[in-house]
Design a protein that fits this description.
It contains ten helices and 18 strands. It is an alpha/beta fold. The chain folds into two domains: 26-338, Glycosidases (TIM Barrel); 347-425, Immunoglobulin-like, CATH 2.60.40. Strands 3-4-5-6-7-8-9-10 form an eight-stranded parallel β-barrel, surrounded by six helices. Strands 11-12-13-16 form a four-stranded antiparallel beta sheet, with no helix packed on it. Strand 12 (353-360) and strand 13 form a beta hairpin. Helix 2 packs parallel to helix 3 and helix 4 packs parallel to helix 5. The two termini are 34 Å apart.
């Protein structure tokens, strides 16, 4: 079967084509490494992964019910994820739940093992996240808990290239953030990394950054001395925008690699209406800079950041009626990326034909081969809404003008299998 693959370009043009490809993400990319301000695969080429974060498994929220083989299989088969994030609770503020609570330790480890084993079987990457906040007065205890936790993870799974370690979810930080990073958070990461590296010297580590993992620029200005560490950026599209992208751009310009291990389409509370305009701007920014991401979150609770409605069961096979507005958008977005290939403005080979793409600030031109066989086209957004339809005819090019800023897709339909071209206009 013809499948499509999205490769990323650091420019604002994306062209997609159809070809046969059966490798899993891990088979394709292998063990991930930091190279400059990019994450690359074993082949040395930049890698951009996309997927879902589970909800942390804490009392009365039900996140643990989705730490299952069925849930991971559905994400791979129907959502087309490259990765999944397993946020393992360190300890809740009430001290009742988490890895650091004696009676809950084995439960949290069992949930981690279920998700990691499922990800390895399906050939996708898995972020193992020590899901803790900055708990004042408990730093030494948290460090010890994290060291023990990641020693277990590295011992059991460090030989698998699927593993990505996220050593701390969201450091908060008050006052002088540069000092907070230098005196508290950076030493925390260094001690936890020192526990991982003798066991697993190679796999990627993602380090949480100040202000709920927004100030990647502060971490980039005083980086951790490990050649395979990226820095975690978290954002919520209805609350965060140019300021946080500015932090990210400064970090990239400083040579740091970024991994968006958690983001949402709504406000930072995890609730409220989704902001599609801001979400698309963030998606374009991550595409442009080849930044991998995991959306928050696969859960069926009452918050609008949940991908599933409250009546959805955790066994998978979630139809449209089981998805929230955010969940449907993210699932459709993941599918759309899976069906596209992006490269710079150039001619590409596709099913024994070649299609050229050139964009302008408000339009695009497709150069078609002499015997292209296409009869019609559909112009649509990433959410699937069709904006235009028309005929192609026998002409050698297709010009589409008066396009607004954002990601556009053109589906070319002919006698043979349809092909999709995408472009980012007016970044």
């Amino acid at each position: 079967m013809g499948k499509n693959l999205l490769l990323c370009s650091a420019v604002s043009i994306f062209v997609c084509c159809t070809f046969t490809f059966a490798q899993t993400p891990v088979e394709k990319h292998g063990r991930l490494q930091v190279q400059g301000n990019r994450i690359v695969g074993e082949h040395g080429n930049p890698v951009q992964l996309r997927g879902m974060s589970l909800f942390w498994p804490i009392r009365n929220w039900g996140g643990q019910h989705f730490f299952t083989d069925n849930a991971i299989n559905d994400l791979v088969d129907n959502w087309k994820v490259d990765l999944v994030r397993a946020p393992i609770a360190a300890r809740t503020m009430d001290g009742l739940v988490g890895y650091m609570v004696d009676r809950d330790r084995e439960t949290q480890l069992g949930l981690m093992r279920t998700v990691v084993n499922a990800a390895i079987r399906r050939g996708i990457y898995v972020i193992v996240d020590f899901h803790a906040y900055d708990q004042t007065g408990e730093t030494d205890e948290i460090i010890q808990g994290a060291k023990e936790f990641f020693t277990t993870v590295a011992t059991e799974y460090g030989h698998h290239p699927n593993i990505i370690y996220e050593t701390l979810n969201e450091p908060i930080g008050m006052g002088n953030l540069h000092q907070y990073w230098a005196d508290d958070i950076k030493p925390y990461h260094e001690q936890v990394i020192a526990a991982i590296r003798p066991i697993d010297p190679h796999n990627l580590i993602v380090a949480g950054t100040p202000t709920w993992s927004q100030r990647v620029d502060i971490a980039a200005a005083n980086p951790i001395d490990d050649k395979n560490v990226a820095y975690s950026l978290h954002f919520y599209a209805a609350s965060h925008g140019n300021t946080q992208r500015g932090y990210a751009q400064n970090a990239l310009d400083s040579g740091a690699a970024i991994f968006v291990t958690e983001w949402g389409t709504v406000t930072h509370t995890g609730d409220g209406a989704i902001n599609l305009s801001s979400t698309r701007t963030w998606l374009a920014f991550m595409d442009q800079n080849q930044i991998s991401w995991a959306n928050w979150s696969l859960i069926n609770n009452f918050r609008s950041s949940s991908a599933l409605v409250t009546s959805a069961l955790p066994h998978g096979n979630w139809g449209d009626e089981m998805l929230t507005a955010s969940g449907k958008f993210i699932r459709d977005t993941l599918r759309a990326y899976h069906e596209t290939v992006s490269v710079a403005n150039k001619t590409i080979q596709s099913n024994n034909s070649s299609i050229g793409l050139v964009t302008t600030p408000k339009g695009l031109t497709l150069s078609l081969p002499r015997e292209h066989g296409f009869r019609s086209y559909e112009l649509f957004r990433i959410d699937g809404r069709i904006a235009r339809r028309g005929s192609v005819g026998g002409v050698g090019e297709l010009k589409l003008s008066d396009l607004s800023k954002g990601v556009w897709f053109v589906r070319l339909v002919g006698k043979r299998e349809a092909e999709v071209v995408s472009a980012v206009i007016g970044r």
